[in-house]
Write a structure and sequence with these properties.
By secondary structure, the chain is mostly helical. The protein is built from three helices and no strands. Helix 1 packs across helix 2 and helix 2 crosses helix 3. The longest helix is centred in the last third of the chain and has 23 residues.
């Protein structure tokens, strides 16, 4: 995928994860960071489970949202 598409997916995934877990977004840069790290985390976790969805835009977005939610959940556990 191109870098532009990766940025769009990361920002959208971070925004969606923020909406799902926190109730609001974090701002573009933090959403982008959460989405990119979440995409990496989600891709690894899903590949360990034998699931590979990252070949399409929607698959990459779902993988990134799953990873971003997992990342935000882990961060919330550490903050407590």
């Amino acid at each position: 995928m191109s870098i532009i598409v990766s940025i769009i997916i990361g920002a959208l995934a971070g925004f969606l994860a923020g909406k799902l877990l926190k109730g609001s977004g974090f701002g573009f840069l933090v959403n982008l960071l959460v989405g990119v790290v979440g995409g990496f985390l989600g891709g690894n976790v899903l590949s360990w489970l034998g699931i590979h969805w990252g070949d399409t835009f929607v698959g990459a977005l779902v993988t990134s949202v799953i990873g971003s939610c997992l990342l935000l959940w882990l961060v919330s556990l550490i903050k407590k």
